[in-house]
Amino acid sequence: MSVASRCLGLSALLLAMTTGCTVVNTVQVPSVPGAAGQSVFVTSGDITEPHEVVGMLQVHKGGVLLFGNIDVVGTDLEAGFKDVLIPEVKKQGGDGVVRVRYAMTQYTPLARAMGAIFFIFPLPSGVTITGQIVKLKAGAAAPAAPAAAPTPETKSL
Amino acid sequence: MKTMHITRIPVALVALVVASLLVCGGCNAIVRGGPLSSVPHDNHGVFLTTGDPPAKYKTLGFVQIRGYGVAIAGLTEVGDAQLNGTIRGTLATEATKMGGTGVIHIEFEDENPQNDAEKAQDAYNSFRRNGSIQTKDRYVTVTGEVVQFTTPLPIQQPLPAAVPPAAAAPPPVAPATPGAPSPPQGTVLH
Q: Can you count the helices (H) and strands (E) in chain B?
Protein backbone atom coordinates (compact mmCIF):
# COMPACT_ATOMS: atom_id res chain seq x y z
CA MET A 1 0.00 0.00 0.00
CA SER A 2 1.45 3.33 -1.00
CA VAL A 3 2.00 6.18 1.41
CA ALA A 4 -0.52 8.32 -0.47
CA SER A 5 -3.29 5.76 -0.15
CA ARG A 6 -2.49 5.28 3.53
CA CYS A 7 -2.73 9.01 4.13
CA LEU A 8 -5.98 9.17 2.19
CA GLY A 9 -7.49 6.32 4.18
CA LEU A 10 -6.34 7.82 7.44
CA SER A 11 -7.78 11.21 6.54
CA ALA A 12 -11.13 9.69 5.61
CA LEU A 13 -11.18 7.76 8.86
CA LEU A 14 -10.34 10.87 10.87
CA LEU A 15 -13.08 12.83 9.13
CA ALA A 16 -15.61 10.11 9.76
CA MET A 17 -14.66 9.71 13.39
CA THR A 18 -14.57 13.35 14.37
CA THR A 19 -18.18 13.91 13.32
CA GLY A 20 -19.33 12.67 16.74
CA CYS A 21 -20.37 9.17 17.68
CA THR A 22 -21.69 9.51 21.18
CA VAL A 23 -25.09 8.11 22.07
CA VAL A 24 -26.90 9.70 25.01
CA ASN A 25 -30.07 8.44 26.66
CA THR A 26 -31.70 10.16 29.59
CA VAL A 27 -34.80 9.80 31.71
CA GLN A 28 -36.25 12.34 34.07
CA VAL A 29 -37.74 11.00 37.30
CA PRO A 30 -37.68 13.96 39.70
CA SER A 31 -38.00 12.95 43.34
CA VAL A 32 -36.43 13.48 46.72
CA PRO A 33 -34.83 10.29 48.03
CA GLY A 34 -36.15 9.21 51.39
CA ALA A 35 -39.00 11.70 51.53
CA ALA A 36 -42.55 10.59 52.15
CA GLY A 37 -45.60 11.95 50.42
CA GLN A 38 -44.45 11.69 46.85
CA SER A 39 -45.15 9.20 44.10
CA VAL A 40 -42.09 6.92 44.00
CA PHE A 41 -38.53 8.03 44.51
CA VAL A 42 -35.71 6.44 42.58
CA THR A 43 -32.05 6.85 43.48
CA SER A 44 -28.80 5.10 42.75
CA GLY A 45 -27.68 5.86 46.29
CA ASP A 46 -28.96 4.99 49.72
CA ILE A 47 -31.24 6.71 52.20
CA THR A 48 -30.75 7.37 55.89
CA GLU A 49 -34.42 7.59 56.79
CA PRO A 50 -35.89 4.60 58.63
CA HIS A 51 -37.29 2.16 56.11
CA GLU A 52 -38.33 -1.41 55.56
CA VAL A 53 -36.89 -3.42 52.70
CA VAL A 54 -39.70 -4.81 50.59
CA GLY A 55 -37.50 -6.82 48.26
CA MET A 56 -35.05 -6.90 45.42
CA LEU A 57 -36.24 -6.12 41.95
CA GLN A 58 -34.97 -6.60 38.44
CA VAL A 59 -36.96 -5.49 35.47
CA HIS A 60 -36.11 -6.07 31.85
CA LYS A 61 -37.77 -4.95 28.70
CA GLY A 62 -36.56 -6.41 25.45
CA GLY A 63 -37.45 -5.89 21.84
CA VAL A 64 -36.02 -4.95 18.48
CA LEU A 65 -35.32 -1.81 16.55
CA LEU A 66 -37.06 -2.01 13.19
CA PHE A 67 -35.10 -0.41 10.38
CA GLY A 68 -32.45 0.34 12.95
CA ASN A 69 -34.48 3.14 14.50
CA ILE A 70 -38.07 2.26 15.29
CA ASP A 71 -38.36 1.13 18.89
CA VAL A 72 -41.69 -0.68 18.75
CA VAL A 73 -42.12 -1.81 22.36
CA GLY A 74 -39.95 0.79 24.08
CA THR A 75 -36.59 -0.46 25.22
CA ASP A 76 -34.95 2.74 26.40
CA LEU A 77 -34.43 4.21 29.86
CA GLU A 78 -37.67 6.19 29.63
CA ALA A 79 -39.72 3.06 29.08
CA GLY A 80 -37.74 0.99 31.55
CA PHE A 81 -38.15 3.42 34.42
CA LYS A 82 -41.60 4.83 33.77
CA ASP A 83 -43.41 1.90 32.19
CA VAL A 84 -41.93 -1.00 34.10
CA LEU A 85 -39.92 -0.10 37.20
CA ILE A 86 -42.13 2.51 38.86
CA PRO A 87 -45.45 0.67 38.26
CA GLU A 88 -43.86 -2.49 39.66
CA VAL A 89 -42.69 -0.64 42.77
CA LYS A 90 -46.19 0.69 43.29
CA LYS A 91 -47.59 -2.78 42.82
CA GLN A 92 -45.23 -4.13 45.48
CA GLY A 93 -46.29 -1.40 47.88
CA GLY A 94 -42.96 0.37 47.99
CA ASP A 95 -42.29 4.06 48.43
CA GLY A 96 -39.14 4.04 46.39
CA VAL A 97 -36.16 2.21 44.97
CA VAL A 98 -32.60 2.58 46.18
CA ARG A 99 -29.26 1.41 44.79
CA VAL A 100 -30.64 1.45 41.28
CA ARG A 101 -28.38 0.13 38.52
CA TYR A 102 -29.36 0.12 34.88
CA ALA A 103 -28.14 -0.66 31.40
CA MET A 104 -29.70 -0.32 28.01
CA THR A 105 -28.61 -1.28 24.53
CA GLN A 106 -27.18 1.67 22.66
CA TYR A 107 -26.30 1.62 18.99
CA THR A 108 -24.10 4.15 17.28
CA PRO A 109 -25.53 6.10 14.34
CA LEU A 110 -23.44 3.96 12.02
CA ALA A 111 -24.91 0.75 13.46
CA ARG A 112 -28.43 2.18 13.11
CA ALA A 113 -27.74 3.07 9.51
CA MET A 114 -26.58 -0.47 8.87
CA GLY A 115 -29.74 -1.70 10.58
CA ALA A 116 -31.81 0.39 8.20
CA ILE A 117 -29.98 -0.97 5.19
CA PHE A 118 -30.20 -4.58 6.30
CA PHE A 119 -33.74 -4.14 7.58
CA ILE A 120 -34.58 -7.81 7.40
CA PHE A 121 -32.36 -8.26 10.46
CA PRO A 122 -33.88 -6.08 13.23
CA LEU A 123 -31.44 -4.90 15.88
CA PRO A 124 -32.01 -6.52 19.28
CA SER A 125 -32.50 -3.98 22.03
CA GLY A 126 -33.26 -4.05 25.72
CA VAL A 127 -33.11 -2.26 29.05
CA THR A 128 -32.44 -3.84 32.42
CA ILE A 129 -32.85 -2.13 35.78
CA THR A 130 -32.11 -3.53 39.20
CA GLY A 131 -32.72 -2.08 42.64
CA GLN A 132 -34.01 -2.56 46.12
CA ILE A 133 -37.60 -1.60 46.91
CA VAL A 134 -38.04 0.16 50.22
CA LYS A 135 -41.01 1.32 52.21
CA LEU A 136 -40.53 4.26 54.54
CA LYS A 137 -41.46 3.83 58.15
CA ALA A 138 -43.60 6.32 60.02
CA GLY A 139 -41.80 9.53 60.82
CA ALA A 140 -40.00 9.99 57.53
CA ALA A 141 -39.72 13.60 56.54
CA ALA A 142 -41.88 15.13 53.87
CA PRO A 143 -40.08 16.33 50.78
CA ALA A 144 -38.54 19.74 51.08
CA ALA A 145 -39.55 22.46 48.69
CA PRO A 146 -37.60 21.92 45.51
CA ALA A 147 -34.92 24.46 44.80
CA ALA A 148 -35.31 26.56 41.72
CA ALA A 149 -33.45 25.33 38.68
CA PRO A 150 -30.15 27.19 38.55
CA THR A 151 -29.31 29.31 35.59
CA PRO A 152 -25.82 29.22 34.18
CA GLU A 153 -25.11 32.71 35.46
CA THR A 154 -26.20 32.11 39.02
CA LYS A 155 -25.05 28.53 39.39
CA SER A 156 -24.37 28.03 43.05
CA LEU A 157 -23.44 24.68 44.39
CA MET B 1 38.96 -24.73 29.86
CA LYS B 2 35.36 -25.49 29.25
CA THR B 3 33.52 -23.54 26.63
CA MET B 4 29.83 -22.97 26.64
CA HIS B 5 28.05 -24.00 23.51
CA ILE B 6 25.43 -21.37 23.13
CA THR B 7 24.10 -22.99 20.04
CA ARG B 8 23.01 -25.93 22.13
CA ILE B 9 20.47 -23.79 23.93
CA PRO B 10 17.22 -24.44 22.19
CA VAL B 11 16.26 -21.37 20.26
CA ALA B 12 12.63 -22.18 20.72
CA LEU B 13 13.04 -22.12 24.50
CA VAL B 14 14.68 -18.71 24.43
CA ALA B 15 11.96 -17.39 22.17
CA LEU B 16 9.35 -18.82 24.51
CA VAL B 17 10.92 -17.15 27.54
CA VAL B 18 11.22 -13.81 25.78
CA ALA B 19 7.69 -14.06 24.51
CA SER B 20 6.46 -14.94 28.00
CA LEU B 21 8.22 -11.92 29.46
CA LEU B 22 6.80 -9.67 26.80
CA VAL B 23 3.33 -11.05 27.17
CA CYS B 24 3.33 -10.91 30.95
CA GLY B 25 4.56 -7.35 30.88
CA GLY B 26 2.08 -6.24 28.27
CA CYS B 27 -1.09 -8.00 29.32
CA ASN B 28 -2.32 -5.24 31.55
CA ALA B 29 -4.62 -2.84 29.79
CA ILE B 30 -4.70 0.30 31.88
CA VAL B 31 -7.11 3.14 31.20
CA ARG B 32 -6.58 6.36 33.08
CA GLY B 33 -8.98 9.22 33.55
CA GLY B 34 -8.61 12.65 35.05
CA PRO B 35 -9.81 13.57 38.52
CA LEU B 36 -13.48 14.15 39.23
CA SER B 37 -14.74 16.69 41.76
CA SER B 38 -13.03 17.02 45.11
CA VAL B 39 -14.60 17.66 48.49
CA PRO B 40 -14.65 20.49 49.33
CA HIS B 41 -15.68 21.48 45.84
CA ASP B 42 -13.78 24.11 43.90
CA ASN B 43 -17.15 25.51 42.76
CA HIS B 44 -16.35 25.12 39.08
CA GLY B 45 -18.88 23.31 36.93
CA VAL B 46 -21.01 20.30 37.69
CA PHE B 47 -20.11 18.22 40.75
CA LEU B 48 -19.08 14.77 39.50
CA THR B 49 -18.47 11.81 41.76
CA THR B 50 -18.51 8.05 41.68
CA GLY B 51 -19.71 7.98 45.26
CA ASP B 52 -22.25 9.56 47.56
CA PRO B 53 -22.94 13.27 47.42
CA PRO B 54 -21.62 15.51 50.21
CA ALA B 55 -24.95 17.36 50.50
CA LYS B 56 -28.68 16.72 50.38
CA TYR B 57 -30.08 16.44 46.91
CA LYS B 58 -33.10 15.94 44.74
CA THR B 59 -33.01 13.34 41.99
CA LEU B 60 -33.69 14.71 38.53
CA GLY B 61 -33.06 11.67 36.38
CA PHE B 62 -30.59 9.20 34.99
CA VAL B 63 -28.18 9.23 32.08
CA GLN B 64 -26.46 6.56 30.07
CA ILE B 65 -23.83 7.53 27.53
CA ARG B 66 -21.99 5.32 25.08
CA GLY B 67 -19.02 6.87 23.42
CA TYR B 68 -17.61 5.38 20.24
CA GLY B 69 -14.17 5.84 18.82
CA VAL B 70 -11.50 4.15 16.78
CA ALA B 71 -7.95 3.30 17.73
CA ILE B 72 -5.68 3.81 14.73
CA ALA B 73 -2.52 1.78 14.32
CA GLY B 74 -2.29 1.34 18.08
CA LEU B 75 -0.92 4.85 18.33
CA THR B 76 -3.81 7.23 18.60
CA GLU B 77 -7.55 7.35 19.06
CA VAL B 78 -10.22 9.44 17.40
CA GLY B 79 -13.85 9.77 18.35
CA ASP B 80 -15.46 9.87 21.76
CA ALA B 81 -14.25 6.71 23.46
CA GLN B 82 -12.18 8.42 26.14
CA LEU B 83 -13.18 8.49 29.78
CA ASN B 84 -12.34 12.15 30.23
CA GLY B 85 -14.35 13.39 27.28
CA THR B 86 -17.32 11.20 28.08
CA ILE B 87 -17.53 11.92 31.80
CA ARG B 88 -16.26 15.45 32.16
CA GLY B 89 -17.58 16.56 28.80
CA THR B 90 -20.74 14.84 27.61
CA LEU B 91 -22.05 13.70 31.00
CA ALA B 92 -21.58 17.11 32.58
CA THR B 93 -23.22 18.79 29.60
CA GLU B 94 -26.24 16.50 29.75
CA ALA B 95 -26.59 17.09 33.48
CA THR B 96 -26.60 20.83 32.92
CA LYS B 97 -29.27 20.47 30.23
CA MET B 98 -31.46 18.61 32.71
CA GLY B 99 -30.99 21.39 35.26
CA GLY B 100 -28.69 19.37 37.45
CA THR B 101 -25.84 20.64 39.55
CA GLY B 102 -24.21 17.28 40.03
CA VAL B 103 -23.92 13.70 38.88
CA ILE B 104 -23.46 11.06 41.54
CA HIS B 105 -22.74 7.35 41.56
CA ILE B 106 -21.03 7.56 38.20
CA GLU B 107 -20.14 4.17 36.81
CA PHE B 108 -17.94 3.71 33.79
CA GLU B 109 -16.53 0.94 31.69
CA ASP B 110 -14.05 0.99 28.87
CA GLU B 111 -15.38 -2.07 27.09
CA ASN B 112 -12.37 -3.10 25.06
CA PRO B 113 -9.13 -1.41 26.09
CA GLN B 114 -5.95 -2.33 24.25
CA ASN B 115 -2.91 -3.52 26.12
CA ASP B 116 0.61 -2.56 25.14
CA ALA B 117 1.22 -5.79 23.22
CA GLU B 118 -1.88 -5.28 21.08
CA LYS B 119 -0.94 -1.67 20.41
CA ALA B 120 2.56 -2.71 19.36
CA GLN B 121 1.17 -5.41 17.11
CA ASP B 122 -1.23 -2.97 15.45
CA ALA B 123 1.54 -0.43 14.96
CA TYR B 124 3.81 -3.06 13.45
CA ASN B 125 1.12 -4.36 11.11
CA SER B 126 0.23 -0.84 10.06
CA PHE B 127 3.69 0.31 9.13
CA ARG B 128 5.43 -2.82 7.93
CA ARG B 129 6.02 -3.25 4.26
CA ASN B 130 2.79 -4.15 2.43
CA GLY B 131 0.88 -3.72 5.65
CA SER B 132 -2.42 -1.94 6.11
CA ILE B 133 -3.49 0.50 8.77
CA GLN B 134 -5.00 -1.40 11.66
CA THR B 135 -8.08 0.02 13.32
CA LYS B 136 -10.07 -1.16 16.29
CA ASP B 137 -13.49 -0.03 17.46
CA ARG B 138 -13.52 1.37 20.96
CA TYR B 139 -16.47 1.84 23.30
CA VAL B 140 -16.89 3.58 26.63
CA THR B 141 -20.13 3.38 28.61
CA VAL B 142 -20.91 5.79 31.43
CA THR B 143 -23.98 6.01 33.67
CA GLY B 144 -24.88 8.41 36.44
CA GLU B 145 -27.68 9.93 38.47
CA VAL B 146 -28.33 13.60 37.76
CA VAL B 147 -29.13 15.53 40.92
CA GLN B 148 -29.80 19.02 42.10
CA PHE B 149 -28.32 19.83 45.49
CA THR B 150 -30.78 21.28 47.98
CA THR B 151 -28.18 22.18 50.57
CA PRO B 152 -24.92 23.98 49.88
CA LEU B 153 -21.91 21.94 48.94
CA PRO B 154 -18.79 22.38 51.02
CA ILE B 155 -16.86 24.90 48.97
CA GLN B 156 -13.11 25.10 48.91
CA GLN B 157 -12.02 28.45 50.30
CA PRO B 158 -9.67 30.39 48.02
CA LEU B 159 -6.10 30.52 49.17
CA PRO B 160 -5.06 33.86 50.69
CA ALA B 161 -3.22 36.09 48.28
CA ALA B 162 0.54 36.12 48.63
CA VAL B 163 1.69 38.93 50.85
CA PRO B 164 4.35 41.12 49.27
CA PRO B 165 7.66 41.07 51.16
CA ALA B 166 7.48 44.76 52.00
CA ALA B 167 4.12 44.34 53.70
CA ALA B 168 5.08 41.18 55.47
CA ALA B 169 5.13 41.20 59.22
CA PRO B 170 8.52 42.04 60.66
CA PRO B 171 10.53 39.08 61.88
CA PRO B 172 10.41 38.34 65.54
CA VAL B 173 12.93 40.26 67.43
CA ALA B 174 14.68 38.81 70.39
CA PRO B 175 13.99 40.64 73.62
CA ALA B 176 16.69 43.14 74.25
CA THR B 177 18.86 42.42 77.19
CA PRO B 178 20.03 45.27 79.26
CA GLY B 179 23.45 46.38 78.24
CA ALA B 180 23.49 44.46 75.01
CA PRO B 181 23.70 46.46 71.80
CA SER B 182 20.50 46.43 69.88
CA PRO B 183 20.80 44.77 66.51
CA PRO B 184 20.42 46.84 63.40
CA GLN B 185 16.89 47.03 62.08
CA GLY B 186 16.04 44.37 59.54
CA THR B 187 18.49 41.84 60.82
CA VAL B 188 17.12 38.43 61.36
CA LEU B 189 18.17 36.81 64.55
CA HIS B 190 18.84 33.12 64.57
A: 4, 5
